[in-house]
From TrEMBL:
Keyword Iron-sulfur: yes
Organism: Davidia involucrata (Dove tree)
Gene3D superfamilies: Glutaredoxin
Protein name as annotated: Glutaredoxin domain-containing protein
Top-level taxonomic group: Eukaryota
Record NCBIfam families: Grx4 family monothiol glutaredoxin
Signal peptide location: 1-16
Keywords: 2Fe-2S, Iron, Iron-sulfur, Metal-binding, Redox-active center, Signal
PROSITE patterns: GLUTAREDOXIN_2
One GO cellular component term: mitochondrial matrix
Length: 171
């Protein structure tokens, strides 16, 4: 009888907790905090050409290999991941972002789920088959397991210290 009362109390407590509102509707569309967000735009014939989105990768004239090289060169911390840092789409990508966020460094990212050709270009560039893939100061580091291990041993702090120092604002 006491066990039933306890479970009833616990169940009522759990039911009263707020529910996270993050529901995926379809590819590229999701709800968060009661608002709908979309990463894609429907092909609307009423939209003027000036306001239609463009694919910057396609219109840049650069090859995917060039884009990956430029990403890695131009961004002190670059992560190719499933999803984006604010909404990772796999546990390994989520883990990598959480570890890197501990160091207050600017994090640049590309979502490989949006472009299978980019995904293949990154694999070829790094000669590494899995994601996420993390590059720090132009050097391929590895995935979430390697970043986590480097974090635990202090090696990641050392590697990121000059990047993190550049982010600190003098008071």
């Amino acid at each position: 009888m006491a066990a039933r009362s306890l479970s009833s109390i616990l169940l009522k407590g759990v039911v009263g907790l707020p529910v996270a509102r993050l529901t995926t509707l379809a590819s590229g569309s999701f709800y968060r905090h009661g608002m709908q967000f979309s990463t894609t735009v429907p092909n609307d014939s009423d939209t003027h050409e000036d306001f239609k989105p463009t694919n910057k990768l396609e219109s840049s004239g650069l090859s995917l290999k060039d884009i990956v090289e430029q990403d890695v060169k131009d961004n002190p911390v670059m992560i190719y991941m499933k999803g984006v840092p604010d909404l990772p789409r796999c546990g390994f990508s989520s883990l990598a972002v959480r570890v890197l966020n501990e160091y207050n460094v600017p994090l640049s990212a590309r979502n490989i789920l949006e472009d299978p050709e980019l995904k293949n270009a990154v694999k070829t560039f790094s000669n590494w088959p899995t994601f996420p893939q993390i590059f720090i100061k132009g050097e391929f580091i590895g995935g979430s397991d390697i970043i986590l291990n480097m974090h635990q041993t202090g090696e990641l702090r050392e590697k990121l210290k000059d990047i993190a120092a550049n982010q600190e604002k003098p008071e």
